[in-house]
Amino acid sequence: MKVSELGEFGLIDRLQSVLSAQSDSIPPERLLVGIGDDAAVWRTNGSATIATTDTLVADVHFMPGRTPWNEVGWKSIAVNVSDVAAMGGFPNFALITLGLPADVEDADMDELYRGIAEACNEYAVTVAGGDIVRAPVTFISVVLTGRAELDADGEPRLLLRSGAEAGDTVAVTGTLGGAAAGLRVLLRGIETDEDKLLVERHQRPRAQVEAGTAAVDLGIRCGIDISDGLLRDLGHICQMSDLGATLQVEELPIDPAVTASYGTGEAVALAAAGGEDYELLIVGDQEKLEQLRERLEGRLTIIGEMTPDTSHKVQLRTATGEGIELPSEGWDHLA
């Protein structure tokens, strides 16, 4: 079977089953969160380390010639910081691997690293090392570590995909759809001021560290960042928490520039399934989410609730209860 038939998450499940035969050279109780969440977490001498990795590949995740190298650098750090934010943690150290064809210009790499440095300054990340290899296409692979705060019992305070309960409220930070719309703009060319805003949303995502750490501080324990699309990422929470979810389409905080450029119908599809917004999807008690909204000065919108549904279906509905079907639920790297 080809990996395109398995899809990204089918392949992850298959590889995880192969790894089940690995020897436990480290006590298993030290690994607190393994394969299947936004990041791994393990215990280290009275604290908890968060670790994640993400890769940007030319002509898959960015378009050389259309995307400035400094923006590629920024994004390579920001998307990893977003994974740490989705766990409710603080980022700290990065390792960077560059894969480069021999004809890449050194000035372009200077610009790439200026973007990396800018993002590291923004999120208090230190680049501690890495590797450079020759490759047929340019890629930037980042390993990022972070830390989780501990509670009074010495347990790490984390947002997990498995932390939802039936009846919990679903909320999202910021606005949705801008990044996916920005990619469309890049493909056809910038024409309006709204286009410029959308391209910025695509090229320069903002990791929501403040929202993640504030959520765990309030006792909220479920979240994920929106990288593959709202519906698909909420589906991961449903799968890991053995629940379903219902979202109200009228409540989706769609980026105004998306609606202005594409109209309401297409804007809904981009917000629900477009991906790469890197906002946080946070699930928990409604009262705590209201407190979180106050801390974030209104940058949090309640959009639905978790339901007892072992089929793990995410339903998008209108105020009258009518279901909405979209052509796609989000991004899969291999499908």
What would you note in describing this structure?
It is built from ten helices and twelve strands. By secondary structure, it is an alpha+beta fold. The chain has two domains: 123 residues, 60s Ribosomal Protein L30, Chain: A (2-Layer Sandwich); 149 residues, Alpha-Beta Complex (Phosphoribosyl-aminoimidazole Synthetase, Chain A, domain 2), CATH 3.90.650.10. Strand 2 and strand 3 form a beta hairpin. Helix 3 packs parallel to helix 7 and helix 5 packs across helix 6.
Topology of this structure?
Elements lengths: L2 H4 L1 H12 L11 E3 L6 E5 L2 E11 L11 H18 L3 E11 L5 H18 L2 E9 L4 E10 L20 E5 L4 H11 L4 H11 L5 H9 L4 E4 L4 H12 L2 E5 L7 H18 L6 E5 L1 H10 L4 E8 L6 E4 L18
Parallel strand pairs: 4-5, 9-12
Antiparallel strand pairs: 1-2, 2-3, 3-6, 4-6, 7-10, 7-11, 8-10, 9-11
